[in-house]
Amino acid sequence: MNQALSIHPQRLTDSIQKLGQIGRYYDETLGLDGVNRLALTAADGEGRRHVIEQMRARGLTVTIDRIGNVYARRPGRKDSLAPIMMGSHIDSVPTAGMFDGCLGVLGALEIIHTLNDAQRQTTRPMVVAFFTDEEGSRFGTDMLGSAVATGRIPLAEAYALTDRAGRTVERELRTLGFLGDAAEKLTPPHAYLECHIEQGPVLRSRDMEIGVVTGVQSISWHEVTIMGRSAHAGTTPMELRADASVAASRINLRLRELARSGKFGTQMRGTMGAMTPAPGLVNIVPGRMTVTVDLRNPDDQLMRAAEADIIAFYEQVAREEEVQIAWRQTARTDCVSFDSRIQAAIAEAATRRGLSHLSMVSGAGHDAQELAHLTRAGMVFVPGEYNGISHNPREFSTTEQCANGVNVLLDVLLELAEQHD
Question: Looking at domain 218-333, which of 1.25.40.10, 3.40.50.2000, 3.30.70.360, 2.30.130.10 is its CATH number?
């Protein structure tokens, strides 16, 4: 029954491309335009205002909460029922493409547009949401807005987070005009749905059109500060150095060993994504290094074992390299499973539309994993070209790929929106 209703594919693509112009930059190495819309920067503010304008143009009522999450509501025939929520994020990493997060938000708005065009009212109300700082690139904690909305991170703790310039989340929300007055704790919706690019090569390599996401793997982030001694690169013998960069390098190599050893499963991943030396000059032994550690594993027990291993290694390196090492946890989430009934509904919707599908665990974190602690949640993945590359200007899913995912989401949405319990 729901297959009779489908979104307008080109309209969705046009919407994604228009938002992609906000925060646009030119990557000289790739010869491509990318997107830099870091959370709570001026570009993010412009993007937020643009999307809110689109929400209101579709007749939605917009509210903003105290962590800057934006919710746009469409009434239902039984408006007192808990709504079906759809959404994602529009903030980006500094070197992004157009699709990460934005497909989930703009795809949800395209669904609303389609329902409006068809004059189709649902029993339950609907809410389209975008959440603050999903990426964590600026303030160091991913899924920040959705984690506050679901109660995992207290508002005061979120407000106090700072970027590298010492600016707080609260200050930047206020500066942008997105320090809303709605309560930050979200009343549980009936269900939460999110359509997202896979951000990996699996679907495309297997020629699959839809990913039925079973859950999200465990994620652990550390910020590690290594204190050695700055010294002259030419006059200080190697055996008399306390080189913070050597200690950092050893930790980085340990991450690769953890992932390759097999002790922590075949899907263990470890990354040192940021390395900042001080003073950072060619002829001075670094006296301080600040680095990040990103651990991911689809098994909670194996993740805890890997975390214990790397923390013990920090202490070993500190002794052997005669440096001091301090670390702090900047983000930590256990594995999350999505609702089995929603997974089945996604698979059935894909089959009805003649789309191949694959059940898969997400390697990346998403707002849906936070909402899963509050309500039934599910995710639809669409494949990406160029080996599914993401967080890169080459990130690209075709008009057809995006439309397939959003149409499947539409089918599931309509099914859930008619449920009375």
Answer: 3.30.70.360
pLDDT digits (tens, 9 = 90+) for 52-75: 999 999 999 999 999 999 999 999
CATH of domain 2-217+335-417: 3.40.630.10
Contact in structure between 363 and 66 (CB atoms under 8 Å): no
Per DSSP bridges, beta strands 357-362 and 210-216 are: parallel
**CA-CA distance, 4 to 115, in Å (whole number)?**
12
CA gap 21, 17 in Å, rounded: 7
Per domain, the residue ranges of the chain are 2-217+335-417, 218-333
Nearest to 300 by CA among 342, 267, 341: 267
For the chain, count helices (H), then strands (E).
13, 18
Beta strands in 7-93 (DSSP E): 24-27, 32-35, 61-64, 70-74, 84-88
- Provide the whole-model pTM: 0.89
- The set of residues, in sequence order, having a beta carbon less than 8 Å from that of 402 and lying 6+ positions away, is 9, 12, 13, 16, 99, 103, 107, 382
Q: What is the pLDDT of residues 192-219, one digit of tens each?
A: 999 999 999 999 999 999 999 999 999 9
> Which of helix, strand or coil describes residue 409?
helix
Nearest to 323, CA basis, from 293, 289, 272: 289
